[in-house]
Design a protein that fits this description.
single chain; 344 residues; Rossmann fold; N-(1-d-carboxylethyl)-l-norvaline Dehydrogenase, domain 2; 2 domains; eight-stranded mixed β-barrel; 9 strands; 39% helix
Length: 344
């Protein structure tokens, strides 16, 4: 099976020491990761009595961060309950981080893929990589592929640069407010230091979530790419929820997308069976049928999309291996041409 993985289970022992973690890109997924890694479960008590989270810092857009500073991060759950998390360390710029007393040991990057070049420039210019981030581990928790390569200008050693994927749905509802739409897990390369593995595993388990440290991480990453390559562009172009990809009218298109992607994956050393991948994508679409994909959310808000790191990535690899990928190429071109700000 292409989805087999190595799962490291956390033993019930005393709590692992806290690790200061900075969420670089505290949007929907990033803000939720901040909540998951916090050192306790924020309650619903009056503001004066609420727990202040000390071990996680949030770095994000000014409006969102301002609201969190003022009122906390409000989180809605599928079951209907809501929680409010209050963070001591909230930043809207690297200058604010540099002027603070917060020293991150782990930086979890949750920005959009197209923002990585700007992130590299900002970090290089800030001097933080020679200062308080000198020994920090960078974990890229992002959509798409090719993200690690995009950080090459920072010259981070392999031991300090890892990737992960979030298999869950989180929606940005308003400044200071997010909604969990689908529960899932976090999958991370097994190369992560043992102490950090225990820390992440324990923090997520406390909140009822799972951290998986995969030795076959590349397979898992491609599995997510297969699903994203189908669901994201189709929903973005049709402006429909994820369930649209299960419609009879879309089946031939879905099969063509996957056929091209599986061929490319094979040339990259990832063996995948076309029928298994179709089953995987259909399963994801069924479980998230009522969800609005991240690419559709971006389109509805007039923002750039991550099409170049999803279907565009498949097209670039196809050209590298002299393969044809006309359906992925057409989808990428259509999304680029119709999304505000992505064409000249």
């Amino acid at each position: 099976m292409i989805y087999a993985y190595q799962l490291i289970r956390m033993k019930k022992t005393k709590k692992t020491s806290m690790i200061n973690s900075l969420i670089y890109g505290a949007g929907a997924i990033g803000s939720f990761m901040g909540y998951l890694l916090s050192d306790g479960s924020p309650g619903k008590s009056p503001p004066a009595e609420e727990m202040i989270i000390e071990n996680v810092g949030l770095l994000g857009r000014e409006g969102h961060i301002k609201k969190i500073r003022e009122s906390g991060l409000e989180i809605g759950f599928p079951e209907g309950n809501r929680e409010c998390a209050h963070f001591r360390h909230c930043f809207s710029s690297l200058e604010q981080l540099a002027a603070s007393d917060f020293y991150p040991e782990m930086v979890i990057v949750c920005v959009k893929t197209y923002s990585l070049p700007a992130l590299c420039r900002e970090l290089a210019a800030s001097g933080l990589l020679e200062g308080r981030l000198r020994d920090a581990v960078f974990l890229l928790l992002m959509n798409g592929m090719g993200n690690k390569e995009a950080l090459a200008p920072l010259h981070l050693p392999a031991s300090r640069l890892l990737e992960g994927i979030a298999v869950m749905g989180v929606k940005f509802s308003a400044e200071g407010r997010i909604e969990l739409k689908g529960r899932g897990k976090i999958v991370i390369e097994a190369r992560l230091d043992g102490g950090m593995q225990r820390y992440l595993g324990e923090r997520l388990a406390e909140k009822g979530f799972e951290a998986e440290f995969a030795r076959d991480y590349a397979v898992q990453q491609w599995n997510k790419l297969f699903a994203n390559a189908v669901i994201n562009p189709i929903t973005a172009l049709t402006r429909q929820k994820n369930g649209i990809v299960l419609s009879e009218e879309m089946q031939e298109t879905v099969r063509c997308i996957i056929k091209e992607a599986v061929s490319v994956a094979g040339r990259e050393g990832i063996s995948a069976d076309e029928e298994d991948v179709i089953g995987l994508v259909n399963s994801v679409a069924e479980k998230t049928a009522a969800n609005t994909s991240s690419m559709l959310q971006d389109r509805l808000k007039g923002r750039m999309t991550e099409i170049d790191s999803i279907n565009g990535y498949i097209v670039r690899l196809a050209k590298k291996h002299n393969l044809d990928s006309p359906v992925n190429e057409a989808l990428a071109a259509l999304v680029r041409s119709t999304a505000s700000g992505e064409h000249k």
